[in-house]
Amino acid sequence: SRTRNLPEVTRRAEVLVVAVGKPHLVRKEWVRPGAIVVDVGVNRVEGKLLGDVHPEVAEVASALTPVPGGVGPMTVAMLMANTVKAALLRRNGASR
Questions:
Q1: Fewer Cβ close by (within 10 Å): the C or N end of the chain?
Q2: 6-91 classified as CATH 3.40.50.720
Q3: Positive/negative CA dihedral, 36, 40, 46, 48
């Protein structure tokens, strides 16, 4: 991220969605106590998948999505649902 004073900005968030592409960038000091943190980042480091949020954030957040197994499965589920919806619309002759 190029945001100036990033820790200060993130500490103000009640819901923090992190998608930066830097493993374990966000630390617990950056997170407001009780915040909901959604880690969208997926980084492969030495054969392991790591998120953009350090696991220590779970100590202060009320909820933290895990990596792997957090938003990834939901992304796949929504992709499949939208693919089926598009196929049905196409089959039924829906206009673009």
A1: C
A2: yes
A3: positive
Q: How confident is the model at residue 10 (pLDDT cuts 50, 70, 90)?
A: very high
Beta strand pairing call for 63-64 and 36-39: parallel
pLDDT in tens, 36-82: 999 999 999 999 999 999 999 999 999 999 999 999 999 999 999 99
Domain segments of the chain as ranges: 6-91
Q: Alpha-carbon distance 96 to 92, whole Å?
A: 12
Q: Are 36 and 15 in contact (CB under 8 A)?
A: yes
Q: How many CA atoms lie within 13 A of 82 on its CB side?
A: 6
Alpha helices in the chain (DSSP H): 6-11, 71-91
